[in-house]
Amino acid sequence: MKLKYLLITLLALIIVPLNVNAASGTVKVTGSSQVVVGNKITLTVTLSSSTSIGSWQMNLSYDDDYLQLTSTNSEAGGTGMVNSSATGVKTKTYTFTFKALKSGSTKVSINSYSAYAYDDLSSIDLTASSKTVKIITQEELEASYSKDNNLK
Q1: Rounded distance between C-alpha atoms, residue 76 and residue 8, angstroms
Q2: What is the C-alpha separation between 95 and 89, in angstroms, rounded?
Q3: DSSP SS3 for 124
């Protein structure tokens, strides 16, 4: 009877796969949350992982009715970010500068992304965040100023 339980236990250990902790990382969009129409805003996209990253692919998404891309340091010069590292990196940062076109609220996000570990080319499990930008007029900005103009 004990031999039967021992065999069942051993068989279960062989059949049931052990949990393997996959590498994980984040893709974050950061920067100012508000800009005035006609002004520029710079947003940063940061890919990071505790595991060395060997290669990655990401694409920035935004509404071109509200924002116009004026400059970036991405490899392709646009919204795509695709590269690899000969030595592995734990963090990669990109900057995107936009001109605000009209008032309203718009979201800037990463709509596709993948990364692979430098050591074994395994897929890194990424989570991504987005950034909501409020675009206001100069009049709306001035209306938010304090009305207290008394010197004391």
Answers
A1: 57
A2: 17
A3: coil
Cβ atoms 37, 104 nearer than 8 A: no
Dist CA 131 CA 32 (whole Å): 9
**How many Å apart are CA 91 and CA 96, to the nearest integer?**
17
- Whole-prediction pTM: 0.80
The owner of tokens 């940063």 is 44
Mean per-residue pLDDT, 139-144: 86
User: Which residues, in sequence order, are CB contacts of 22 under 8 Å at separation 6+?
Assistant: 122, 123, 124, 125
Burial of residue 14, with CB atoms counted within 10 A of its CB: 0-12 exposed, 13-18 middle, 19 or more buried? exposed
Position 3 scores a pLDDT of: 54
The amino acid present at 69, given as its one-letter code, is L
Q: Which residue has the tokens 């890194």?
A: 124
Whole-number average pLDDT of the chain: 88
pLDDT greater at residue 148 or residue 24: 24
